[in-house]
Write a structure and sequence with these properties.
By secondary structure, this protein is α+β, with helices and mostly antiparallel strands. The protein has two domains: 3-94, no CATH class; 97-211 and 228-445, Major capsid protein gp5 (Major capsid protein gp5 fold). Helices cover 38% and strands 22% of the residues. It has helices spanning 3-24, 28-31, 39-59, 67-94, 117-126, 137-144, 151-159, 174-184, 186-189, 249-254, 258-280, 309-312, 315-326, 339-346; strands spanning 101-104, 110-113, 167-168, 193-197, 204-209, 231-236, 239-248, 298-301, 307-308, 334-337, 366-369, 377-379, 382-391, 396-401, 405-409, 418-431, 437-444. Strands 8, 9, 10, 11, 12, 13 and 17 form a seven-stranded mixed β-sheet that branches. Strands 3, 4, 7, 14, 15 and 16 form a six-stranded mixed β-sheet that branches. It is globular.
Length: 445
């Protein structure tokens, strides 16, 4: 047998030993892991292999390995190395998460912009300190409450305290929260990005587009015409957003399906307020400034006293598109509106009583509802008005501190056998190019 054939035979034997050992350990999925697939599949595969390594190490101390165990560790180590090489390549290509664009600060440093579940999970899993054991959201809350939980959670809690006396949510848990946040937030659904910011300065300064420059032809030796200022400095200050909830001790300790309930509750609470602040925030501390109150946005008025969508139909949306394109902004990709507005537009009929089709100009726009746009605004003599926001919402960003914080309220509800939790997240809203956003006001049912 040639040396090359011997190497191939050794690799085949090591792989077979690895798969057989994974089956004995009760982790057959780890035995099927290969170095390939999407970023998420690579993360899942690495986690499974590390679980198998940790379990085998607990049963086989170093220096006391059988030949089969040595083959297992050799193959597992090579597999992890191959997966991490592929993840490193994906991170270099995507700026920290596959396909992620970069947010550049005034000091020249960059941060990834996360859009969608895969980029969110990739970013946080690359920063997870312990990828060998899964940490669930419910297990984490049980650990915060001092109840029985996993070793991984106890390790995370031992190093995860913050200055407010709470616990920083581990990187392994953050993706489940943000992934749940994305589909219930109208702004994130429309394409807004999350920029995760680490600990450090309380404020960050970045450049935003104030006005597009104007180019002009010049004669030989002629002077260059002056142009409008192109950029403006935007200072982002992550503000504290918090909510509190309580749960019975028995439910917290015993419920097998607490994980999705916690994830939904936290995501819904934060998503609703992030939407409201991102769209209509006043900018008066401690509230971020939303699109409505940013100087330089396009404004379309639906009549002095407002007008019904049943009458104006798509006319004012087309006017909003016209205002955006006239400002050299990109074609809007979405329109965010109150559910009342969405259902009114959806119920429009043509002259034959058939559902009215959108104009071609609006056919590619996503119509996204949110309960955070009021339907009782006053315009002129009407007090039942609403708003519609049109834009390419990829120009809006939430600058968010990396870790959410959870603080235990142990004594507040003790007399009723309940445990309280106070959840904090710090975020700010940045509108990169105000002229690329249009607000239609005076929208009636």
């Amino acid at each position: 047998m040639t040396f090359k054939n011997e190497q191939i035979a050794a690799r085949v034997a090591a792989e077979a030993s690895y798969r057989a050992t994974c089956a004995k350990l009760g982790l057959p999925d780890a035995g099927n892991v290969r170095a390939g697939g999407t970023v998420r599949q690579l993360h899942e595969g690495r986690k499974l292999v590390r679980q198998a390594i940790n379990k085998q190490r607990a049963e086989a101390p170093v220096g006391d390995w059988t030949p089969e165990q040595s083959q297992f560790f050799d193959h597992a180590g090579q597999l992890v190395a191959q997966i991490e090489t592929m993840l490193d390549e994906a991170e270099r290509e995507g700026g920290g998460a596959r396909g992620a664009e970069q947010w550049r600060l005034q000091d020249g440093s960059t941060l990834p912009v996360l859009r969608g579940a895969e980029q969110i999970r990739s970013h946080y899993e690359r920063r997870a300190a312990d990828a060998g054991e899964e940490i669930g959201l419910a297990d984490f809350f049980r650990g915060v409450a001092g109840q029985k939980t996993t070793t991984a959670v106890r390790n995370a809690l031992s190093v995860g305290t913050d200055t407010a006396g709470g616990y920083s949510v581990p990187s392994l848990v953050m993706p489940s929260i943000l992934e749940a946040l994305a589909p219930v937030s109208s702004l994130l659904t429309a394409g807004a990005g999350i920029v995760p910011v680490g600990d450090g300065a309380k404020t960050m300064t970045t450049a935003a587009i104030n006005a597009l420059p104007t180019a002009a032809w010049r004669a030989e030796n002629g002077s260059v015409s002056e142009s409008d200022p192109t950029f403006r400095a935007v200072t982002a200050t992550p503000r504290s957003l918090a909510f509190m909830f309580k749960v019975s001790r028995e439910l917290l300790a015993d419920s097998p399906n607490l994980e999705p309930a916690l994830r939904t509750a936290i995501a819904q609470a934060f998503a609703k307020e992030l939407d409201r602040a991102g769209l209509r925030g006043s900018g008066t501390a401690p509230e971020p400034r939303g699109v409505l109150n940013v100087a330089g946005i396009q404004s379309v008025t639906n009549g002095a006293n407002g007008a019904s969508l049943a009458t104006t139909a798509y006319t004012n949306l087309i006017s909003a598109v016209q205002a955006l394109l006239a400002a050299d902004a990109p074609m809007p990709t979405a329109a965010i509106m109150a559910p009342r507005s969405l259902t009114t537009l959806g119920g429009l009929l043509d002259t034959t009583n058939q559902p009215r089709q959108r104009p071609d100009l609006l056919s590619n726009m996503r119509f996204i509802p949110t309960s955070q746009i009021p339907v009782n605004l006053t315009v002129g003599t009407s007090n039942d008005c609403s708003e519609i926001y049109c834009a390419d919402f990829s120009r809006l960003f939430f600058l968010m501190r990396e870790q959410m914080s959870v603080q235990l309220l142990l004594e507040r509800f003790a007399d009723s056998g309940q445990v309280g939790f106070l959840c904090h997240v710090r975020a700010d809203v940045v509108v990169q190019y105000p002229a690329a956003f249009a607000v239609v006001t005076g929208v009636r049912a």
